[in-house]
Amino acid sequence: MIEWDDKYSVGISRIDDEHKQFIDIINKAVATNEQSDDPEELKEVLHQITMYAINHFSTEENYMIEFNYPEYQYHKEEHHDFSKKVIEYCERVNAGDSQFANEILEYLKRWLINHIQVTDRKYIDCFIRNGLK
Ligand SMILES: [Fe+2]
């Protein structure tokens, strides 16, 4: 489980709120995996993570475009890599391979925490300068 901590805050309320929800969904996936052997349930939470990620990434990317953020391309690629990986996992689970649920969840947790603390921090100055709070 990931617990929200102030060290994850980027100081912009809309983005912090979305990151908190992102963490909640991943925690829900971890709980589902611990409590159930039903691959349908894993599929369902992975689907929710994918949908949430797409939505959240577009929030950030739209601001980057609007504010002419210089590292937009690089940041977008990191988002893209994540989406690709989750879709790949979904396909494996759909094909009946759910043995590696722990690996998926470890990847998701690690990626999100690292992304929030490293890559997302880089846009803070730019976003705040452009009026976000
Ligand atoms: Fe991001």
Automatic annotation (TrEMBL):
Indicate the segments annotated as coiled coil, or none if absent.
none
Q: Which GO terms describe its molecular function?
A: metal ion binding; oxygen carrier activity
Task: Please report the stretch or stretches of sequence annotated as the Hemerythrin-like domain.
Answer: 11-124
InterPro entries per record? Haemerythrin_Fe_BS, Hemerythrin, Hemerythrin-like, Hemerythrin-like_sf, Hemerythrin_metal-bd
Q: Does the keyword Membrane apply?
A: no
PROSITE patterns registered for this protein in UniProt: HEMERYTHRINS (PS00550)
Top-level taxon: Bacteria
Q: Which UniProt keywords apply?
A: Iron, Metal-binding, Oxygen transport, Transport
The keyword Acyltransferase is annotated on this UniProt entry: no
The similarity annotation says: Belongs to the hemerythrin family.
Give the protein name, as stated in the record.
Bacteriohemerythrin
Q: Please report the organism this UniProt entry assigns to the protein.
A: Candidatus Scalindua arabica
